[in-house]
Amino acid sequence: MPRKRTLIPSPLAWTMQPAPVPPPPLPVLAERGGTQLHTPLPVAIIDTREQNPLSFRRFRKWFADVEERALPLGDYSVGGMEDSCVVERKDLADLIQSFTTNRQVFINRLRRMSERPHSLLVVTASLTEIKSEYPYRGANPNRITQSLIAVLAGLRVPFICTETHELGEEIVASYLYQTFLYDWLERNGHGRHLADGDL
Predict the structure, then answer these.
(1) How far apart, in Å, are the Cα atoms of 168 and each of 93, 156, 162, 178?
(2) Which of 17, 39, 43, 50 stands the most exposed, by the fewest C-beta atoms within 10 Å?
(3) Neighbouring C-alpha atoms within 13 Å toward the C-beta of 94
(4) Nearest-CA neighbor of 196 among 31, 51, 64?
(5) Segment 123-169, tens digit of pLDDT
(6) How far apart are CA 42 and CA 66, in angstroms?
(7) Which among 99, 68, 98, 72 has a CA at the least distance from the CA of 85?
(8) Which residues of the chain have pLDDT under 50?
């Protein structure tokens, strides 16, 4: 019996070609009753000790300013929220070193991050890269991957993997913007949501 041909191929047969779209003018807008709220812009803080800092040049309209100064914890934060908002960024080589050679120092930093209300670990490498063999390194990809999951499950510090440094810039910029916005909404009596009946 001949096989029946379908007009739409199965989603399993689709191939994804990575082609990120340009970032939006602003990550999100807050509104009440269908009217946009006039909310201030945050000040992004980049730690002066960051080795290969993310650039927020493409996102200048998302921030009132971008400052470089020493942070008490992490690589990125928001002005006025340095003690509550912490973003730690790692590229693949740094992540491997942090979970092997510098493990105790990194775990202590993650423990301190877990005490903050807004903490995020951003890895500028794909999960596939993290889980694959590392050339010229004795580190075990399974150990690194399971350490990340332990950070999530045990310390409750979320992590995001991005395929490129540039995508990492957008994710961190958006996280800083939205963390500030939610905090501002809550402090100014608007509740912790962007729109009525929504996030």
Answers:
(1) 15, 21, 6, 15
(2) 17
(3) 14
(4) 31
(5) 999 999 999 999 877 899 999 999 999 999 999 999 999 999 999 99
(6) 9
(7) 72
(8) none
State the pLDDT at residue 4: 62
Architecture of domain 42-187: 3-Layer(aba) Sandwich (3.40)
**Cα separation, 71 vs 116, whole angstroms:** 14
**Dihedral sign of CA atoms 93, 99, 103, 109 in order:** positive
Long-range contacts of 18-21 (CB under 8 A, 24+ apart): 18/163, 20/167
CA dihedral 178, 25, 65, 126 (to 10 degrees): 60
Rounded Cα distance between 179 and 173, Å, is 10
- Token pair, residue 91, equals 């590229």
- Tokens 């994710």, located at residue: 171
